[in-house]
Amino acid sequence: MVAIRSKDHSTRYRLTQEELLVLIDKEARHRLKMSGEEFMRGLKDGTLPETVAKRDLEMIVRLLGPRWRTARSSSRTLTP
Fold first, then answer.
1. Bridge-partner residues for 15, per DSSP?
2. What is the pLDDT of residues 8-60, one digit of tens each?
């Protein structure tokens, strides 16, 4: 579990690994038009171009800890 704060630092959220994977998937689909799993595979392989979106998502991925390279995206999908 990891704790993150809201942009204005007024609220603290605790996210499980599963919730982080859902967040990564949602943001990768929205910002990069690819699944979270595709993003993490590209990050691992070093095939993603350097963009602001890639760097932002990479910071979230690192919250998964040292085992992020073996984490799988959730099969759950989020509806807008």
1. 2
2. 778 777 888 888 899 999 999 999 999 999 999 999 999 999 999 999 999 99
Tally the residues of the chain: 80
DSSP state of 69: G
Q: Is 54 helix (H, G, I), strand (E, B) or coil?
A: helix
Query: How far is 48 from 50, CA to CA, in rounded Å?
Result: 6
Continuous segment of H or E residues that includes residue 53? helix 52-62
Task: Report the C-alpha gap between 18 and 16 in whole angstroms.
Answer: 5
Q: Token pair for residue 44?
A: 């691992």
Give the bridge partners for 14, in sequence order.
3
